[in-house]
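Appendix B. Chain record.
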Amino acid sequence: MNHLEYRFGDHRLFSATRQIWRGQQPVHAPRSVFDCILYLIENRDRAIGRDELVAAVWGRVDVADTQLSQLMRRVRRTLGDDGQSQRTVATVQGFGYRWAIPTEVEPVADDHGEKMPADESARPATSMASASAAAGRVGTRWKIPAAAGVLVLLGGIAIAMLWRSPKPVDSDASRSSSPATSHLVVLPLAVDGPAEDAWIRLGAMDVVASRLRRTGLVVPPSESVLATLQGSSNPDALAENARTRYASSTIVGGAGKHGDSGWTISLWAASGDSVRRTGSASDTNPIEAASLAADALAAALGRAPVPSDAPSEAESRIARIRAALLANEVATARALLREGGAENETPELRYWHAQTDFRAGDFDAALSALDELAADSVTKTDTSLQGRIYIARAGVRIRQGEYALADKDFDTAANVLRPLPESPEYAEALAGRGIARVALGRFDEAASDLGRARLQMERAGDAFGATRVDANLGLFELTRHRPAAALPYLDDAARRFESFGAVSAVLSTLNAKFDALALLLRWDDALAVSDRRWALRERAVDPMQRYLIGIDRSRVLTAIGRYREATELLDATDAAFPDMRPQIRQVLMSQRAELAWRQGQTAAAFDLARKALAESPCTDTEPPCGRLMLTYQRALIASGDVHGDGPAPGPAQLVGSDAATAARPAIALAEAEWAAHRQNPERAAEQYARALEIADRDGVPSEVAEVAISYARWLIGQGRLDEASALAGRTAAWAGSDFDCALLQVAILHAWGRAGPWREALDRARSLAGEREVPAALAKPPG
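Structure tokens predicted for this chain:
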């Protein structure tokens, strides 16, 4: 994977691993400082306005001038600069800032996107490789299954198509003859015609892209281009936006004009260092005019057009349907599909019926139609259509949580499309198969598929698709229980999604980043990510995204002791989304139960946890299960085991004997706490040791701390202070960011009677407490 190293003065900045070096020494840069420096460097050819810089760093514009001024002082101090000399960052009076120091850029293309410092002994242990080794394996215990989150980033996996069945192209030979060696990015066309012909803006764009692609030119899919150009409509602004976001590519734009003799489509292709080339054509059918204009432009670019017949009525209708779906106008697409009647439907139109049902959320209808198409002998003669059918069917399977069936369909699609390695669908099939295999725990195969998919997307010039794969690789590491290894992928993907203006993808990536930071107990950083997501929440299209944004914000507010805000936020989120499906509602109910328990509301916590457990089965595939079980049991123990008409069930009865479920540390911890409550110290010691062994195998701070804190408190109660001290020492590294870890340090020092260190630990715990109180017994001096 290619990343960049920026060199300026005696500094080096690595974009992939978010590191800054001064000579052979690493330089600490907080998130906001690093984001600011990187954004200024990446835009060093111009001055950056105050609002633009604020939005890039904080994800919102309502930031006071004093905050920005403080940030710039920290930036300059980090780089050994000051406001007087302004060697690195210069103030542009009345406007903003600009990067002032000469900078060299060098690609970094080793396996991890990181270049080794000259002195290997000085290499920091924060590269993706070392992070992977250190992180171990940990499960996300709060969210919906990881593959469902991955699906959000998969994007238009079931939407891609080629306009006419392409023939395999000798890509190396064909590209060598072209004067345009860079990727071609085709923009929406400006349309001058009747209002009912507005669809041509996107329809002709897609026809031109597909037509140019057939000549062997590298042209990213229309979905990816539109995702990166959100918010642009004016042709001049659109072209400028594209030039900024696709700086090394040739931009293709154009216009369609309706006259007495029909449609005239005029195209142009230009890049920073090449002559502007053009092509135009006229026809009564705008799709044919666009095809002929694309052929003329291809010829001007040194390519031989691929002969084809004039578009049929069905193909023209498909172009309009395609344009409607690109514009997310599902109702319009359905109306167009009804125009011709069922008796006139070709296999291609039947495919688009299924696609439209899929986009409308009617998965059963989509799957039924795709099953019929897959069995139709006619489709087996069309390689592209057959591959797209299986990709679409797999997309439905993913939505339904049927990952084994999805893997089978993606595998079939990849094999069908192998003769078309340059097609966008082949890359989508590989990416989809990788995602299905992540969900199935087939990690080595998944890594191979995702890596190959990324390479294919880079070769196809699909920068947005490659970024989606990077985000999925981050989610892949998270699903493999490696949150530390996930962060570099997610950081880089989020930054690039932001540069593309792809809000939904930004939110999905930040959602995963939030999970990783929470698992690492980095609550200040998690709060910063939550702030960014909260600022973007109204722009989220998917209701589930907005729902989870609210729940996650409540989580982090709970973790830092802001209970009142956390409760109000859960109430508002619950009221705003009353129809969320049970599996997702369980996440909110689990958080309600946790919050009630932490506030000392034992009866409420028990009732909420019991309702949450009834909402959706508690199995190992449901990450809320372990934490929810602990909350349920702790409330149960505090109530004396009895609620309502008799004893409530214990953990073993709720979880059952499934080996995979029982192997999670939270479940083993529940068994240990239950044995301790039942006055069975031998069983408690055995289960605590087992829980710690499982948590150590995973090696993630949140789970290690959960077990160590409970275990150490029990050992203190047993008078086994030496063993408790060892566990307290293991959590000391997180005592500066996590209240529960800080409180354990207070407890062990209090038990040993060490007044001086106890006082320091108490002050630190109180600084993290928020609305929480240190227990009275621990707040009194020992002795």
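Further analysis of this model is presented in Appendix C.
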